[in-house]
Hints:
By secondary structure, the chain is α/β, with parallel strands linked by helices. It is built from eleven helices and 19 strands.
Amino acid sequence: MKAIIFAGGTGTRLWPLSRKKSPKQFEKLINNNSTLQLAVERLHPLFSPKDIFIATNIAYKKIVQEQLPKIPKENFIFEPEKKDVAPAIALVSGIFRKKNPKEPMVILWSDHLVKKVDLFKKILKNAGDYIAKNPKNIIFISNKPRYPSSNLGYIHIGGKAKTVNGTVLYSFEGLKYKPDEETAKTFFKSGRYAWNLGYFVTTPDFICEAFSRFAPNISENTKKILDHYGQKDYQEILKKNYGKVESINFDHAILENLDKKEAMVVMEDIGWSDVGAWEALKEALETHQYENIIRGRVHIEHVRDSLIYNYEDSKLVVGIDLDENIIVNTNDVILIAKKNSISKLQRLVKSFEGTENEKLM
């Protein structure tokens, strides 16, 4: 089985630490490790370095290879420009198809945390074993929701379909995009909806054939590129043609169109968190709801339920009488916001375009 970790996002919800030149997945957020490094580490020893692949933008070539020195150079797949996820998955699946079309592969993302690593690896192994025998299927790996989040997508779970070495596979009833708060509460209470992590196990053949059916323009463009794979002009052809397709989300292009009979779902609590925003990072790291999460030189008194990160060793950050705050100090920006206001950060950073603050994006 092969694992492919996608690491191409920009992550403005973790600004000012995450910038265009150095996105969130490369920043040392947890115990001096980036979430990309943690994503690779938790695959060992189920996957050897030669079976782990990284897909990202060519702009990040230096930093990903520096952070992951054990991954073979040929296992880095670089996109020549930023598109949405669908073209990137089509390219990777096409490359894998040339090598071993029916070998199971797992799609993963670089900006997540998983606390229950042993359970996660058990699920990957069992799902891979099932797909090896059923290569025309796809298995979604979801997380049992811990609370009714309206910031995450959901998978509708049906009844139990199979059990593979203790891992229950449920029938697939469809994908649901980010619901409003009331709908999220209904999903949570029902017990029939799980957080959609974007993780799945299938084969290159399955994905490539799905692109042929549901996104033929992406499929045809990718085939034109991969006709030159392994040849001297491959990089030139890739750069010339990769951007010629629409920028479309993989869920919309492929997953929402699948026959439900082709898919099954694993729903477990693997301790998953999306650390794409400061309040999500706090939730992932805290051991109780009102805990303060601190990094760097920080002194606080009467502070509750806050995250305070200080990246300047020469400066002391002091907080008094604060509740539910996010405070992040870098060498050129200080962010101070209420925890429930971080959703406004993306729009604020975008407003810097064309201003004197654009260099801070």
